[in-house]
Amino acid sequence: MRVKLPADAAWATVRDHLVERLKAGPGVIDGMLRDGLIVGVDGLPVAPDAPYVPGTFVWFHRDLPDEVPVPYGIDVVYRDEHIVVADKPHFLATTPRGSHVTETALARLRRDLDIPTLGAAHRLDRLTAGLILFTVRPEERGAYQTLFGERRVAKEYEAVAVHDPRVELPRTVRSHIVKERGIIAAYEVPGAEPNSESRVELTEYNGTLGRYRLTPHTGRTHQLRVHMNALGLPILGDPVYPLVTGPVPPDDFRRPLQLLSRVLEFKDPVTGADHRFVSARELGAWTSYDSWHDSCQSPPVDGQ
After folding, report:
1. What is the DSSP string of 44-71?
2. Residue 105 DSSP SS3
3. Do 224 and 165 meet the contact criterion of CB atoms below 8 Å apart?
4. For 172-196, what is each residue's pLDDT tens digit?
5. Topology of 75-296 in CATH?
6. What are the extents of the domains in the chain?
7. What is the mean pLDDT of the chain?
8. pTM above 0.85, yes or no
9. Which helix (H) or strand (E) element contains residue 150?
């Protein structure tokens, strides 16, 4: 169970808030804290005297044993006193959400780097691999988040999908994408004012497969996946487009989405340095399609 500490109220400690909110009695809460059954965003037990921090989250530790470990490491590409750039594997969520708490990039990095103040400047889908920017100092996080909000970060993705010579590339795809809360798939609204834009380029192809460079100029949820599917080039391993077969169970690592955040480029808003980071990861369907396909143990979706 996840509990958000209200931003418009204050207690001296997390313990005091939980005693009042959960109505379980001080003895029960004290016992849970003593036994380490309540954890913070870093997955570590909340101390009995931990100060109350408005707007943060705690979780009941009894939910965590069901969390399936993601069997892939996360690499640090760059680190200084202001930022950390990490290269995330497929299937690892960026930040705690839903059933993913300790098995997230943020929680792992906070523990591994011993930076409890680390925060995400943006997010990648759990199924997408590649580069993510984290901030070290909470007071600087807004400056880095603004880079993304104002589209001052050059982002480049790589994807593996079917190759269809009838699809004219390169091209810029624009559409109006809607993502409704609680609905897995986003959808396009024909004729509506575009709110999304992606550049799609074919960099090489090998038989029926193509390798694509995708440059998003906006950041709608599932944007690149929606645009590739609209072109008739659904990304390999996608459990949603063109056919919803997900959500992917947390213990199913057979069929990684062949989408990678390859490049992040921006001017540092704090130091003024020019940064360009490149993921070292490779998409398995392109480098070794036969072994990747065999390991999936399930047939590809229509069109693949």
Report:
1. SBPPTTPBP-TT-EEEEGGGGGGPPPP-
2. helix
3. no
4. 999 999 999 878 899 999 999 999 9
5. Pseudouridine synthase (3.30.2350)
6. 2-66, 75-296
7. 88
8. no
9. none
